[in-house]
Design a protein that fits this description.
single chain, 330 residues, Rossmann fold, Helicase, Ruva Protein, domain 3, two-stranded antiparallel ribbon
């Protein structure tokens, strides 16, 4: 078995070499934001949608459009507004007077990477239209159903600052996102570099295509080969169950703070995300550190807190941190 893992490790090290090339291409355009870039790659490798939360101006849009160029994929940005209609997203039937028939005009959702900008600014009917595309990887226009091209990834942003004119995402839709990542401010050194780069009007460096959408689909198969020990699987289950009943791990003080624990999707996505995290580190096996690294992103939007927690100004990250500190690491 040890020999098999050693062989697997060598194979994954070779097969994951393109990750470093992608990181190098990103650095031509994006300063810092390694955490966001890594999570976008994990979403891409795991076929999981991502919700990004952060104040404006943190290069969320630029990072996603750069990723589309690096993977030679089709990219569409959709600005969500209160007057947006489902047809603006998915497409519609248009009547052709000359031919006396209807033809399909496909919407911007037909792409590899979709940037749903400020997703919480549109009403529920638009969000539900996006939900079919996210979950079923298909779109229904009239009587016809159209499959979306793989890879298909929705990267949605929401602004935590403005609450006026926003529609909170339904819990069912939030749960469809594999990861919720909080995009933070750059450091002083990074911001100095950003200022120097962006204040320079010289032509920017061209972005090279590193990998094709077809190669992304092949890389997804490699994620399935990454070895996860049964003890690590049990560790994931222990974390998820502790969000539902923290008393079982000796944290009764968290019980009044948690209204709903994480759904079974959390255990599936945490398993996948930990494997992808190992792949990014060029490893053929998962360690507990991979699970810990991804736990916040997978659970942040799935653990629903009570009003009591809000009153005490306790966040989901605080609750997750308490659980990870208490649960025994294999």
């Amino acid at each position: 078995m040890a020999l098999d893992i050693a062989e697997l490790n060598d194979r994954i090290k070779q097969e994951s070499a393109f990750i470093d090339l992608i990181q190098t291409e990103f650095s031509k355009v994006i300063v810092g934001q390694k955490y966001m870039i890594d999570r976008l790659l994990i979403g891409l490798l795991c076929n999981g949608h991502i919700l990004l939360e952060g104040v404006p101006g943190l290069a969320k849009t630029l990072t996603i459009s750069t990723l589309a160029r690096i993977i030679d994929g089709k990219f569409h940005r959709i600005q969500f507004t209160p007057d947006l209609l489902p047809a603006d997203l998915t497409g519609t039937l248009i009547y052709n007077q000359k031919e006396s028939n209807f033809f399909v005009k496909k919407g911007p959702v037909f792409a590899n990477l979709i940037l749903a900008d400020e997703i919480n600014r549109s009403p529920a009917k638009v969000q539900s239209a996006l939900l079919e595309a996210m979950q079923e990887k298909q779109v229904t226009i009239g009587d016809e159903t159209y499959k979306l091209e793989e890879p298909f990834l929705v990267l949605a942003t929401q602004n935590p600052v403005e609450q006026e004119g926003t529609y909170p995402l339904p819990e069912a839709q939030v749960d469809r996102f594999m990861l919720k990542i909080i995009v933070g401010y750059p450091t002083k050194v990074e911001e100095m570099e950003i200022m120097r780069r962006m204040a320079n009007t010289a032509e920017k460096k061209p972005i090279n295509k590193i990998i094709t959408p077809k190669q992304i689909l092949q890389a997804r198969q490699l994620i399935n080969d990454i070895y996860m020990d049964e003890k690590i699987e049990q560790y994931i289950i222990d974390i998820i169950f502790a969000t539902r009943d923290p008393q079982t791990v000796g944290l009764p003080h968290l019980k009044p703070l948690i209204q709903y624990g994480a759904s079974p999707r959390a255990s599936i996505f945490l398993n996948l995300a930990a494997k992808a995290h190992a792949f990014l580190k060029h490893r053929g096996y998962v360690t507990p550190e991979d699970v810990k690294a991804m736990a916040y992103d997978v659970l942040r939007h799935r653990v629903i807190l009570t009003y009591e927690a809000e009153a005490e100004e306790k966040t989901t990250d605080f609750v997750i941190g308490e659980l990870l500190a208490k649960i025994e690491v294999p």
